[in-house]
C-alpha cells in the first residue's frame, strides 16, 4: 500500500470519516454456513480497523436497507451461486451500489468452470484436459456408452466435479471405472452439468491475487496437504484434516511460474480486486490451472487469509484498502 497517497490510506480515511461498509453473507446455497463464517470474520477484521461494518444477508430486505442507509462500499462474502455467478452484482450495478470484486460478466465466466478453462487455455496457460456434459446427454444417449468414451479419452484416474460451484462440494477422485457412475450421480445432486477432468498428480496450490490500486499481484502460494489425499469439502472445513504451508514449499522458479499463472488467469477472465486460483504443480514443475474463485473463503481454515499473512499484510488492512478504493471509484 502506498505511503505517498494519504487520501487512500485506510487508517487516515477511517480517522477522518469512518467508512460505512456492508458485508453480504449467507444466501440460500449449499455454502450458506461457510459464507456466514466468512462474513463474520470480515466484520470483525473491519471493526478492529476502525470501520463501521454491518453484516447483512442477501434477501428481500437487502435493497430497501441499502436504499434507506446507503453503504460507502459493499464487500461480498457470499459463496456459491448467490455471490459468485454475477447475478447479485448485476443487481447491485442496477442499484448503483459500489462493491469490492469482479464485475458481473467476469463472475459469470469464472463461475462456469468449463468456460473459464477454455479462456485460460486460449490464453496459453495449462489446464487438465476435460469433458463437460449435462445430465440430459447421459439420459438420452445412454450413460454407459458416454462414460466409456470419457474414460477412453481422458484415462484414469479422473476428477468429477460440478461444472459450477465451490467449497469442493461434489468433488470426487475416481480411480476405478466401476466407481464412475456413482460419482456422476452424486455430482449431479449439485447441478445439471458435470465436469470430468483428467487427474493430475502433484501438489495442490491456492494462489491468491489482490489489486490494491497498482494492478494485480500474486500473494505467496499456499500449499495444501490433505490427510486423506483429496481436498474435498470435509478436508477443507474440518480443522486438523489438512496441513497448509504458507508460503508453499516450492523452488523459486516454480513459485514464480505459479504467481504468473494466477495473475494471468485474473487478467484473462477480467477479474478485479481479489481472486483465488486453484492449481496443481506437477513433479516436473508444470503448473496446471484448475478453477478460480471470485469470492474466496475467509474462514479460519481458508487459504486467502493465509496468503495475506504470508505476504506480511494484515487482513483487516487489505480489506479496508479494497473497500476504500471501491468507495473512491
Write a structural description.
The chain is α+β, with helices and mostly antiparallel strands and 329 residues long. It folds into three domains: 81 residues, Rossmann fold, CATH 3.40.50.20; 132 residues, ATP-grasp fold, B domain (D-amino Acid Aminotransferase, Chain A, domain 1, 2-Layer Sandwich), CATH 3.30.470.20; 69 residues, ATP-grasp fold, A domain (Dna Ligase, domain 1, 2-Layer Sandwich). The chain is built from 14 helices and 13 strands. The strands form three sheets. Strands 8, 9, 10, 11, 12 and 13 form a six-stranded antiparallel β-sheet that branches. It has a four-stranded antiparallel β-sheet with strand order 4-7-5-6. Strand 12 and strand 13 form a beta hairpin. Helix 2 crosses helix 14 and helix 8 packs across helix 9. The longest helix is centred in the first third of the chain and has 17 residues. It is globular.
Secondary structure layout:
Blueprint: H1 10-16, E1 20-24, H2 32-48, E2 52-56, H3 62-68, E3 73-76, H4 81-84, H5 87-95, H6 104-111, H7 113-122, E4 130-134, H8 135-141, H9 143-154, E5 158-162, E6 172-174, H10 180-188, E7 193-198, E8 203-210, E9 217-218, E10 222-226, H11 233-237, E11 242-245, H12 252-268, E12 274-281, E13 287-293, H13 303-310, H14 315-328
Parallel strand pairs: 1-2, 1-3
Antiparallel strand pairs: 4-7, 5-6, 5-7, 8-9, 8-10, 8-12, 10-11, 12-13
Helix pairs in contact: 2-14, 8-9
Amino acid at each position: 500500500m502506498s505511503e505517498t497517497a494519504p487520501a487512500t490510506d485506510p487508517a487516515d480515511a477511517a480517522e477522518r470519516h469512518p467508512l460505512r461498509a456492508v458485508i453480504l453473507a449467507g444466501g440460500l446455497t449449499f455454502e450458506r454456513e461457510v459464507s456466514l463464517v466468512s462474513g463474520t470474520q470480515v466484520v470483525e477484521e473491519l471493526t478492529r480497523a476502525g470501520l463501521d461494518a454491518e453484516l447483512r444477508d442477501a434477501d428481500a430486505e437487502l435493497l430497501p436497507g441499502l436504499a434507506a442507509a446507503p453503504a460507502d462500499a459493499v464487500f461480498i462474502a457470499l459463496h456459491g451461486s448467490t455471490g459468485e455467478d454475477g447475478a447479485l452484482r448485476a443487481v447491485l450495478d442496477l442499484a448503483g451500489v459500489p462493491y469490492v470484486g469482479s464485475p458481473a460478466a467476469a463472475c459469470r465466466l469464472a463461475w462456469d468452470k468449463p468456460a473459464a478453462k477454455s479462456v485460460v487455455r486460449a490464453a496459453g496457460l495449462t489446464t487438465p484436459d476435460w469433458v463437460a456434459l449435462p445430465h440430459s446427454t447421459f439420459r438420452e444417449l445412454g450413460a454407459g456408452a458416454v462414460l466409456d468414451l470419457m474414460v477412453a479419452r481422458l484415462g484414469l484416474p479422473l476428477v468429477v466435479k460440478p461444472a459450477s460451484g465451490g467449497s469442493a462440494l461434489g468433488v470426487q477422485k475416481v480411480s476405478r471405472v466401476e466407481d464412475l457412475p456413482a460419482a456422476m450421480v452424486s455430482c449431479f445432486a449439485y447441478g445439471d452439468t458435470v465436469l470430468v477432468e483428467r487427474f493430475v498428480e502433484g501438489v495442490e496450490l491456492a494462489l491468491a491475487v489482490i489489486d490494491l490500486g497498482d494492478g494485480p499481484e500474486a500473494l505467496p502460494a499456499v500449499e495444501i496437504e490433505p490427510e486423506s489425499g483429496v481436498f474435498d469439502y470435509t478436508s477443507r472445513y474440518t480443522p486438523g484434516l489438512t496441513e497448509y504451508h504458507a508460503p508453499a514449499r516450492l523452488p523459486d522458479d516454480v513459485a514464480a511460474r505459479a504467481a504468473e499463472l494466477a495473475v494471468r488467469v485474473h487478467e484473462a477472465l477480467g477479474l478485479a480486486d481479489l481472486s483465488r486460483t486453484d492449481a496443481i504443480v506437477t513433479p516436473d514443475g508444470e503448473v496446471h490451472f484448475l478453477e478460480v474463485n471470485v469470492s474466496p473463503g475467509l474462514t479460519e481454515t481458508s487459504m486467502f487469509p493465509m496468503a495475506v499473512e504470508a505476504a506480511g499484510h494484515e487482513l483487516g488492512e487489505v480489506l479496508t484498502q479494497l473497500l476504500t478504493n471501491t468507495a473512491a471509484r
